[in-house]
Amino acid sequence: MARYIDASCKLCRRERQKLFLKGTKCYTEKCPIEKRNFPPGQHGQNRRSKISEYGVQLREKQKVRRMYGLMEKQFRNYFERALKQTGRTGEQLVKTLERRLDNVVYRMGFAPSRKSARQLVLHRHFTVNKTIVDIPSYLLKPGDVVQVREPSRKLELIHASMKRTKDASMFSWLTLDKASLTGTFLSVPERADIPLNVNEQLIVELYSK
């Protein structure tokens, strides 16, 4: 499967905002975007050309795709899925992405980033409803229980990430029991509750051309 292997911080600089791809580094002064908030490359700092309507739509799509760590074909498939659902297509797209297991693991605080969460899932560190699931794209349903497996409960990565998780109630659609390293996906979140600074309607307009 294709995957992005270049520096993650370049993606944030290209979008000129933090996409929170590097976990704790994104919250420190070491984050490159704090000092170099311009696109990477030889001419990144000197670009002054006006962005076209298509360019604005493309940047919004790339921003969301990179936040959730998806390749173009995967992202397009999610869009096609959202297109068939009732309601606003852009909102359905974001709500579906939030249901991914790797995203929920990240939101619950078991991993410092979605990339780390994806790796933990692939390495079979989690169960869903007491069944091992090693598919990061697995879509959770309301009531599904996510738990760290017994052999994985001593992983320093998980415990270090949990220490930085201040309040599990910050997401109304999730619950978290730190003692048992267990969380529940209560419901599909409403778009207004999802902390995502993007305009998903621009993505709909881009794919509708």
Structural features, described:
With 209 residues, the protein is an alpha+beta fold. The chain has two domains: 8-97 and 196-207, Ribosomal Protein S4 Delta 41, Chain A, domain 1; 101-187, RNA-binding S4 domain (Structural Genomics Hypothetical 15.5 Kd Protein In mrcA-pckA Intergenic Region, Chain A), CATH 3.10.290. The protein contains eight helices and five strands; from the N terminus they run H-H-H-H-H-H-E-E-E-H-E-E-H. The protein has helices spanning 8-15, 53-67, 72-83, 89-98, 101-108, 114-122, 156-163, 200-207, and strands at residues 126-128, 131-132, 144-148, 174-177, 182-185. Helix 4 packs across helix 8 (200-207). The two termini are 28 Å apart.
List the helices and strands and how they pair.
Elements: H1 8-15, H2 53-67, H3 72-83, H4 89-98, H5 101-108, H6 114-122, E1 126-128, E2 131-132, E3 144-148, H7 156-163, E4 174-177, E5 182-185, H8 200-207
Antiparallel strand pairs: 1-2, 1-3, 3-5, 4-5
Helix pairs in contact: 2-8, 3-4, 4-8, 5-6
What brief labels describe this structure?
209 residues; elongated; alpha+beta; 8 helices; 2 domains; 5 strands; 5-stranded antiparallel β-sheet
CATH class membership of the largest domain: Mainly Alpha
- What's the domain count? 2
CATH topology of the largest domain: Ribosomal Protein S4 Delta 41, Chain A, domain 1
Name the shape in a single word: elongated
Widest sheet, order of strands? 2-1-3-5-4
Low-confidence stretches: none
The named CATH superfamily of the largest domain? Ribosomal protein S4/S9, N-terminal domain
Assembly state of the chains shown = single chain
Task: Give helix and strand order, one letter per element, not per position.
Answer: HHHHHHEEEHEEH
Q: How many helical stretches?
A: 8
Q: If classified by CATH, what would the architecture of the largest domain be?
A: Orthogonal Bundle
What does the radius of gyration come to? 18 Å
Biggest beta-sheet profile: 5 strands, antiparallel
Strand content: 5-15%
